[in-house]
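User: I'll paste a sequence; please echo it back and then give the predicted structure.

Assistant: Echoing your sequence first, then the prediction.
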Amino acid sequence: MAQRVEHDFLGEKEIPKDVYYGIQTLRAIENFHITGIQMKSEPIFVQALGYVKKAAAQANADLGALDKGIAAAIVKASDRLINGEFLDQFPTDLIQGGAGTSVNMNANEVIANVALEMMGKDKGNYDFCHPNNHVNCSQSTNDAYPTAFRIALINKLTAYSDSLRELADSFHAKGQEFSQVLKMGRTQLQDAVPMSMGDEFMAFATNLREELSRIEDSKRLISEVNMGATAIGTGVNAPKGYAELVIKYLNKASGLSLSLATDLIEATYDTGAYVQLSGVLKRTAVKVSKICNDLRLLSSGPRCGLNEINLPPMQPGSSIMPGKVNPVIPEVVNQTAFYVIGADLTLTLAAEAGQLQLNVMEPVIGFSLFTSITYMTNACNTLREKCVVGITANATRTQEMVMQSIGIVTQLNPIIGYEKSAAIAKEALETGKSVHDIAVKEKKLVTQEKWDEIFTFENLIRPKFINS
């Protein structure tokens, strides 16, 4: 394989002649073998790096910090990254040392070599377009990397919000479908009072929809960037007015509404927005997992469990027990939620581990957020498509359970009082008799007419106060 030779201040290395990355990317390939997940697996991050490098070139050209011809070539090369080209030229591991320097240099080298090729020059002929002097002009890893990272997060969160909204909508649709299904509510896994299965599923929808506004709050925090801070927030090596101008170009390129942090020194080391976003992801994961626990309980059986609902059968459930079908979709979503909950702790520790003017742990913060958002997006889509939309209700069974339940005696409290209601409940539990037979037929504490008034479907799911 033909090679070219590149150098940095550590020495020289041979690089395959046809690749667009350079010596610093090669060093990262050699040094970091951690996750096996490469930058190219996050195309939205590569695209965001293209936005950053394009905006920087435009601002630098306007301010006279960069030759307009070189800037134009960088802009064109960056556009090609934005359009999805050269993904295979981003082979660095997502978790790496150096606070993201390898990722930043990977982008700088690829863009420089793409620009050189468009100029009719050989790759590596950096006199005409240099990764550091030109592509990285008025930048450092410490502002370019987190700015690109935040752009990527905002765009990933948009897709995640869509998947979560669609999942909530699917529960809402089931709520409407099950609006006339009477069932027993439960607290602490014990019979409580009756309710509509429709209300139960509507509550699932409401529970998830609450998270959409929390995601939007996090996106607003992440939209504040430190572009123009360069190394530590002092703006070293950047011309006057650069920070404000680069944000203008960045918003135009990305279509977002990014804002410049008011204190660039603070913004360069602060990771509070990431901690909040991770907390939101964890919070949603906990909620989704709890709902999956409920679905597994409600579908337990089919003969010896609650058996209130049926989940779509997705695959045989046992290698030894014929006919067994397991709730595999809620199970896999539970496991996904556990990962996200754990990733939040990883991110929390990484955010705390920063020292002085920079948090060098941002790569693992990025890895944690990227994977958590991706996994939660996939989990929401899977739960909706392969489970929720196919759920059916066992309405006859749920109604029978309500009328056989001791919990319905609660409805009699306003008429006969707690003490007499408790006595009925105790007798029903000990004898196996129904609450109806004890209260109406034997003790005659309630007339049949009053019983019929109290125990209508509407009054059971939307109780009105009846005390006489």
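The chain has a mean pLDDT of 95. Residues 141-177 form the longest helix (37 residues).
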